[in-house]
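Checklist before submission:
- one chain only
- standard amino acids only
- sequence pasted in full

Submission:
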Amino acid sequence: MVREIMKDTFFLAQKSTPADKEDLQIAADLLDTLIAHKDGCVGMAANMIGVSKRIIAFENEGGYMVMLNPEIVKQSEPFMTEEGCLSLTGTRKTKRWKSIKVKYQNTDMQLRYKTFTGWTAQIIQHEIDHCNGIII
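Returned file contents:
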């Protein structure tokens, strides 16, 4: 189900709580909402659809990927960039990492580790910031 985009900065600034198997419908709704906004959005966190859970969805190698409880465990090669967000107006400067290793659970609730680089790594970092209540 496609949900409305949350724009309340007070809500977006709150840390999200861990996701579990009961939150899989939220993950599905998040993916549906991302796909509905694919012309102007490459990633979303659950708080962007009004649900304060640690779930992200993003474009990945021509498809989409969903992560529950993502956490960056390793990062390298910092750089400065500018980003926009569907929940906020304008763009903001921020520091990102060219390569990140992420610990997360897939939609089968299996623990996974994966390294991402470049644009995909940048998207993931932005969405994990959302999970942590950091507004970029």
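Reviewer check: The mean pLDDT is 97.
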